[in-house]
Each structure stands twice: as C-alpha cells, then as structure tokens.
Design a protein that fits this description.
The chain has 292 residues and is mainly alpha-helical. The protein has six helices and four strands. Helix content is 65%, strand content 8%. The strands form two sheets. A two-stranded antiparallel sheet has the order 1-2. The radius of gyration is 59 Å and the shape is elongated. Keywords: Nucleus, Transport.
Length: 292
Amino acid sequence: MGGNYNTNPNPNPTAPAAAPAIGFPSQPVVAATQLQRHNQNHAWDQIQLVIESWNPHSPLCQFRHYFYNLVDPAQVGLYTCPPDHDPALWEQAQLENPDPTCLVPALAVGFEDLRKRMDQQETEATAHITKLDEISEKLTQLRHLHQVETLARLAEFRRRNQEHAYRIQRLVKMVQVLRFRGQTLRPEEEVVRVRLEAMLNELTRPGQLQRRSQDLWTQTQTGLAQRRGQGNGGRVCATQHGNIRYEVASDVDLETCVNLLDNYQAGLTQFTGIVQQHLVDTKSLCDKFRPS
C-alpha cells in the first residue's frame, strides 16, 4: 500500500510546454493591417483636399485672386480687410496695389466670380464704346458746323475787315486833304507829281506800246537765233516785217514768245491803269492845294 504516484502531467520537468492551438494574431499581421488603414485614410484626405481646393466656399480654395476696383479717393480709407479674408493675402494685395490713392483690392474666388467680373468689364467696355460713338458723332457735327457756318462767317468777317480798312484809308486821305487844303506842295511832292505825269505821258504816247512790243519781240528772236546758232537745231522760219526780221526755231518757241508778249502786254496795261489813277489823284491833290 503506500506506493509513490506522480501527479505532474509533464514527465520531463525541464521541457517547455506546447503552444496553444488558438489565440491573438501575430505582430506582422497587425502592422500590415494598420499600414493599409493609414494608406486608405491618406488617400481619402488627399481626395478631400482636392475637393476643398476646388470648392469656392471653402477657406482652402486655391482659386483666389485679388483684382482692384476704382473708387473715390476720399473713400479709399473706408475699405479694410473683411473678416472672411486672409489678412496675409490682403496685405500682399495692398503692397501690389498699382495706385493706392484710388484702387482697393477686390477678391475673386473661383470661376464664377471671374465670370462675373468679365461680364462687368464687358458692360463697362460697351458703355465706353457707346460714349466714344456719341463723342465721335458730336465731333462730326461740330466739324460740319465749322465747314458750313464758321468758315463762311470767317470769310464774311474778313471781307468786312478789308472793307473797313479801305474806308479808313479813304477817310485818312480825306482828312489829309482837308488838313493841307490851301497849302502849296512841298518840293518832294512836286518832284513826285512831275515824275508821275512823265510816266503817264510816256505810256499814253501814240505807238509807244507797239514799239515796246516790237523791241521785246526783237529781243526774243535774237535769243532764239543765238540758241539756234549754238547747234540746237530745229525748223527755221523767217518773215520780214519792215526792217525787222523774225525767226523762230519751232512752233513751241513761237507759242512761248506769244505767251510772253501777252504777259508783257497785260502787265503794261495794268501798270498804265495804276499810273493813270495815281495821276488823277495827284491832279486832284494839286487842285485842292492851289490857293483859290
């Protein structure tokens, strides 16, 4: 009775116990699962960031740009940074303001605000074009008025001015006549009177103009003959008129001579009229200056 019984299930007390068949997963499996979940969260955050970047109502929207509005210079100080604006961006816009005296920053967020601003600019441009058309039409009317009325009135005023100047000259002449009435001519005035009478007699002498014309014709023919003698060639015609021989090299030269003589004749006629008028005035002055 009294035998020795071993109650330890492991007959070898130094051997390790066997691992259980079931329990928690190993450490590598847990790390892989956490990495997968982290990647999924990171991708979702990136997608959400892209969505917020395109959302004009989000503070993370990347489509933000400051334009500038023209305001009254007295009201520039009333415009401050709004509460929903980034103060740093506002300060940067103020630093980049091309004209702080009359321009204030205006934030445009997204393409909708950009479209609204483009529409406003198109409206302003249309208004400017309309105003320019009105100004152009007004200028056309003023130009027509200037051509039709102003120039005509200016010509009329110029004519009146010349008429008044002529009348003033006549008045001055009459005043001088009345002033020197009954006085004898001065020596230099007597010399002028004698010279004018001599010139008139020279021009009104019978045959004077004809002799002068013949002299001019002779001089012209002499010059043509000299040119012909220098080898210019051409057709030569000769006619005898009294003791004067006329020669022309061509019909063109003949026409030139005729035109030249006509011009001389017109000049002499005009000069004769002027001298006759001066002589009449001189005689009138002499008659008035002679003592009665």
